[in-house]
Amino acid sequence: MTGRRRAALLLGALALAALLVDLGRFHRLEHGDSIVPVLVALQRWTPFYWDQERYGMLVPLLSLPVRDPLGNLLVQRGLLVLAGLASVVLLARHVLSRRDWPLAGALAAASLFLAAPEAWRFEFLGDQPYGLSAALALAGLALAEPGPGGVRPARRLAAGAVLVLAAHWVNAAAGLALVPLALARAAVDRREGEPAAEVRGRLTVDLALLGGGLAVGQALVRLYPVLSGQRSYLALGFLPPGRWPSAWDALLGNAWRDAGAWPWFLAAAAAAGVALLALPPVRSLLRPEVERALLLLAAALAYALLAGTLEWVADNAFHWRYLAPSAVLVHVAAVGLLA
């Protein structure tokens, strides 16, 4: 089976999964904030969430032609679920590009439904912009990768930049988890013997795209209130350093308390993966696979520590949803070892 056909089958499977989720009991967890984007599409579209520039209204824009309220809700949720599942697969591709990443991505996406608590799944796949922004950013980085002969066509680079910028319109902090991931990935790639020039070139492009996206995203959330003539409700600063330890404790404590059996599932998956990789036929893969998992864990930790220092997170009582990107990074790390 060719790589293109395999990717098409994987995309079809993700679309089918998103449809089944969208037509199921997923909507039991709908609440006031999650319904606002539907009203944005039906009553008055604005570039950002009503009266709060916390995330961009790309999905409501795409759903504008659907004027039936229930139909619009289903379209928006379907797009968000598809993007969230795709972000898991694209993350596996990004980190495990020379491995069997479709298997790792598909297994990680499927096990997310089995292991993650229902509230976590709804926040990541249906309510918050984390999955959509990650899918856009990772797709942009994939488009910007060099083709045959190490050449980056200008049109692919431009398309990649557009997707990364769109990711940071949707979520101004989209690149915060991907920047440490890019740095860690470059170090691991170099240890595994990839040519220094190739690693350096990929890292330079990734950091340029992500850095530009972060700059544009931060500019948008600061300029939008001025241009729209409305008051800004976002606390965009950092907590005083003296509060960081207690903030990290509160954020991580809330996440752990509501994670249910998910961490134990991931621990078991990682342990099983390491045990299988220690078998003689594949023992040579143990070290590089563990290193790939550790780089995902390092990026997850870096993002979690940064999230805990933000005033906005503190103003929202250190809700565990702000750790959703870190949780998905850890999930892909553990399931990737098993895959």
Tell me what the structure shows.
The protein is an all-alpha fold and 339 residues long. The longest helix is centred in the middle third of the chain and has 33 residues. It is globular and about 60 Å long. The model has no long low-confidence stretch (mean pLDDT 92).
Please render the helix and strand layout as text:
Elements: H1 3-22, H2 32-42, H3 58-62, H4 69-95, H5 101-115, H6 118-127, H7 130-143, H8 154-170, H9 178-191, H10 196-228, H11 244-257, H12 262-277, H13 286-307, H14 311-315, H15 324-338
Helix pairs in contact: 1-4, 2-4, 4-5, 4-6, 4-7, 5-15, 7-8, 8-10, 9-10, 9-13, 12-15, 13-15
Low confidence ranges: none
**Class from helix and strand fractions:** mainly alpha
Terminus-to-terminus distance: 19 Å
- The mean pLDDT is 92
Rg over alpha carbons: 20 Å
| Share of helical residues | over 70%
Strand content: under 5%
Taken in chain order, the helices and strands follow as HHHHHHHHHHHHHHH
User: Tell me about the biggest sheet?
Assistant: none
* Bulk shape: globular
- The number of distinct helices, counting runs of at least 4 residues, comes to 15
Total beta strands: 0
